[in-house]
Amino acid sequence: MHAGNQNREQNHRLLVFRNRASEVLLDVRRDQFCLPSVSVPAGRRFAEAVDGMLRRQWNCTGVRLFEVSPLPNRTDDMSPCQVVESWGSTGRLRKPAHWARLEALRASRFLNQSDFWLMNEGLARYNALDQDSAAPPFSKPGWFHSVRAWVSEQVALRGMGLTGGFHLLTVDGAFCLVRFETTGPPVWFKAVGPSNVREYAITLGLQSLVPDFVPSVLAARPEWKAWIAFHVQGAPLYTRRDVSAWANAARSLGQMQTVSLAGVGRLANQEARDLRTEWLFESRGEFFDAMHRLMEQQTKAVPARLSTTEIYRLQKTVEDALTEVRAMQVPVALGHLDLNPGNVVLTPNGAVFLDWAEAYIGLPFLSFEYLLEQYRQQSGAGGAAEPRLRKAYFDCWKRLLTIRQIESICGVAPLLSVFAYSASGLSCVGNRESSPARNAYFRSLMRRMALEADRWTARRTA
Fold first, then answer.
1. Is the dihedral of CA 377, 8, 440, 1 positive or negative?
2. Distance CA 211, CA 208 (A)
3. How many Cβ atoms from other residues are within 10 Å of residue 61's Cβ?
């Protein structure tokens, strides 16, 4: 959600074990040992970057286990160390790097003593995690072997086999995302940790609710909160700028939501976010109180803070907008709060939607507004193309809503979409754990909300 410095890189040392941590990969500088290192650009998936570097520079593959922090009083090298378990080789190990037996290594052979300390600290933690049954599953030694064996069993039930190719995108304790190549279509293994655990139940629930609009799940593993799904063959929406592709995505979104109407209530028990009109009404007081405190924390003069009067007026406008929508009795449907173009894949039969951690039940048109905002940012197109996207989406609703209701929704949607998105993230802002950048982002959402409120009010009074 936040823009950052995409040119900034962070250096990490790598502690690469193999053969149950009896050997370690070492580089050689000035006839002394050192741990290899990798520079990871800001925003790049770390596990993906590490595996890519191991393949390119040393002809081996590896999977991340955990991180070891350097001693705070060291001055020779303060970069963190990522502990990696080697999975295999793709060719001959490139010199001067080589595999060394840990039992034969001594501190005097290392260029930096912090490397020797990190190696021993990493080995101790490796052994401790190996014996800890309560450790996060994807930080334990051998986790990749366990995952690969399970995936192999499941694809075999579909008459397929693993070819050996894999692409590790990310892994962090309880979260993991890996693509496996098979003799048929590729499959994805995904496991979710505590922060996104609801995605597990939601993903499985969507298989029966809207099966034509989500990836097909082959198998699930409850103790890992993990599942295997077929790769969706198609073009990610971010590769397309033409309005026809985005109109197809908008149409598929509307079709999916109307299909969801019959059983969407089941998702409430599967921890989908509640963005029904009733919840939005109930949360408005707490939300605007929090936003008032957040505005008071702003220290910069520009952009100007919203005053107490402006916040009160904004709250009243949001209440009016919610009252208008409630009177329309818009059906409660499935929605997606993270409809970035990377989560939409265009296929010959329409669009398939990915990554449902931010699923919600409530006002359906909020999702369309998020998709429309992504189109504006990606295409750079003006408003001339937007009516085509609106028509593609709202044509799906014509049997349920009148033309007048659709026109009213189009007018109020920009305001309520910002409010609903902001209100859904209220627990993550304004507290001790909330970063200054996140607080600033929510203040920017408040300003955007005020702008949309003024526009809606102007249209109503015109």
1. positive
2. 6
3. 20
The distance of Cα 431 from the centroid of its chain, to the nearest Å, equals 22
> How large is the average pLDDT for residues 149-171?
96
Q: Which residue has the tokens 């040992």?
A: 33
Band the pLDDT of 435: cuts 50, 70, 90.
confident
Residue 194 tokens, joined? 């505590």
Domain boundaries, the chain: 9-131, 139-230, 235-461
CATH 3.90.1200.10 corresponds to the domain 235-461: yes
For domain 9-131, give the CATH superfamily. Answer: Nucleoside Triphosphate Pyrophosphohydrolase (3.90.79.10)
392, two tokens:
């593609």
Query: 131-152 pLDDT, tens per residue?
Result: 999 999 999 999 999 999 999 9
Query: What is the residue-averaged pLDDT of the chain?
Result: 91
- CB-count exposure of residue 228 (10 Å: 0-12, 13-18, 19+): buried
Indicate the CATH number of 139-230 among 3.40.50.10300, 3.30.200.20, 3.40.50.300, 3.40.50.360.
Answer: 3.30.200.20
* C-alpha R_g of the chain: 26
- The pTM assigned to this predicted structure is 0.90
What is the reported pLDDT for 41? 79
Beta strands at 235-236 and 23-29: parallel, antiparallel or unpaired: unpaired
* Predicted local confidence at residue 445, as pLDDT: 95
Distance CA 240, CA 347 (A): 13
Instruction: Look at strands 273-275 and 359-362 and give their pairing.
Output: parallel
